[in-house]
Structure formats: structure tokens, C-alpha cells
Amino acid sequence: MVRWKVQEEIKRAAEVICQAQKTVALTGAGISVESGIPDFRSPGGLWERFDPAEYGTIQAFRANPDKVWKMLHAMSALMKKAQPNPAHKGLVRLQKMGKLNHIITQNIDNLHQAAGATHVIEFHGNYRTLVCLSCGQRFATEKIEDGVTPRCDCGTILKPDVVFFGEQIPAGLLPESYALVSSCHALLVVGTSAEVTPANTIPYTAKMAKADIIEINLMPTILTESLTDIFLQGEAGKIVTALVHEVERVQSQTRT
Ligand code: APR
Questions:
Q1: Which of 40, 71, 127 has most ligand 1 atoms within 8 Å of CB, for mutation?
Q2: How crowded is residue 172: how many other Cβ atoms within 10 Å of its Cβ?
Q3: pLDDT digits (tens, 9 = 90+) for 198-230
């Protein structure tokens, strides 16, 4: 059950989305927590188990890939069995209603696509592909044997095609994302602490273009006080579901 105050804010957010010609979403690890994948910085998050300085940088991967693969195996085991939750499905519903354009995600878990989403920009890559840092060959994750560090035909240890700290965002995705949010009227920010750059510059770019920022998170973030117009506090699954219902209600009213 969504608290009354939040319900009022959901009404406001639904109005904004219904009036917006173009709405874009930016998602983070928080949207997949209800699918059984812990986020990074919350209590019990991945970076509590694995020190990002030892496991999350490209330097750490190059220096000791076997060690980093211990974390990667743990992550891919969780991601392999994870299913899209009501928040992922709700965004697909908004896309199907023509009320949501692109989804820019920091997540590598493929759950937006698994829910049926289209126009997904994978800002930090996707765990389902492996790449050889020597010869550039790519492989599907099916190649991974549990607990075994995967190697390329050329003998080099393979890396998941995801962005480690110290690596560039995949080519073209940053200007593409900036262009999208510079022409949107509303940005739906779901389940991100907005602590990692350059992804956390996207909401500011949207704001500079006078977009309304609607933020969904369990807790306030660095965006909430400085940038957010409507803050919907709660679990993404419940809040997105309630928001979609409200958009459908407003849509049906405008039709009659
Ligand atoms: N519903 C809504 N929000 C949630 C939920 C939930 N069920 N569970 C957690 N959250 C929120 C947390 O309060 C937090 O603000 O999601 C946010 C997750 O933040 P992070 O763990 O920092 O994840 P994210 O913002 O995606 O991290 C960005 O950092 O570690 C790197 O490359 C990694 O893509 C990742 C990037």
C-alpha cells in the first residue's frame, strides 16, 4: 500500500508524464533489487562484500583477473536467475502507452530487455557478452563455466563487456544520452544513488533543458534536494506500478 502523501505526489507525477511530449528514464541498481540483485552502495550492497578498489577497476582486473572473476561469477549467478520485476514491467507498459521514450540504464543485468523494453541504452554495458582485451573477439556468457576464469581462443582471459571504473562509457552513448534528455520534458530517475559519473550528469543535462525530474528511490539522494521536482519515496516495484495505474487513469479521463 502506497502512503497517502506519496499517492498525492504520484498524481502530480502522472500529470507531468501525461502532458510531456517526451519522457526518458534513467535507471540504476535499485530497480533490480526486487529481482534479487543487491545494489552497490546500500547496506548489504556489492561494494560492502567486494572492495571496489580491489574488484571494480580495470587496473584491478588487468592486475589479477582470476581474483576479479570471483566477484564476476557471484554477480552473473545472481543475474542469470533474476527475472524482471513490476518496476521493469511498468516501464515497458509506459513505453507501450507511448508515454516513455528511451530507457538509459546503468545496469548490466539485461532485465529491461527481458521485460520487453525497447530503446534501451546500456550505459555500462551488458554482462551477457564477454570480450577479449587482446584480440577483441566477443563471446556469449554461455561460454562461462561456474568458477572457471574464461579464456579467449587466443589464450587471454576474457572480460565481461561491462564498464569497470577507469574505463570509458561505450562510444557514442554519452552524446546520444545527452541529446535525448536535452529534448525531453520529463526524466524518470529510478533506483540510482547518482554517485557515479558521467551517468549522474544526465539529470543535470535534462534539468538545463527545463525537464521535470521525477525521482523514485527508497531514500533521498544527492539529486533529491538539488534537482528533483517530484520525489516518490518507496520501493520501485510498488511506486512504478502505482504511477502507471495513475497515468492510465488520467489517460482514460482525457479520452472520454
Ligand atoms: N526501490 C527503489 N530504490 C532502491 C531500491 C528499491 N527496491 N533498493 C535500493 N534502492 C536505491 C538505493 O537507495 C540507492 O540510492 O537504489 C540506489 C542504488 O544506488 P547504487 O547502489 O549506488 O547503484 P547505482 O546508482 O546504479 O550505481 C551506479 O556504480 O558501482 C557502479 O557501475 C556500477 O552502474 C553502477 C554505478
A1: 40
A2: 9
A3: 999 999 999 999 999 999 999 999 999 999 999
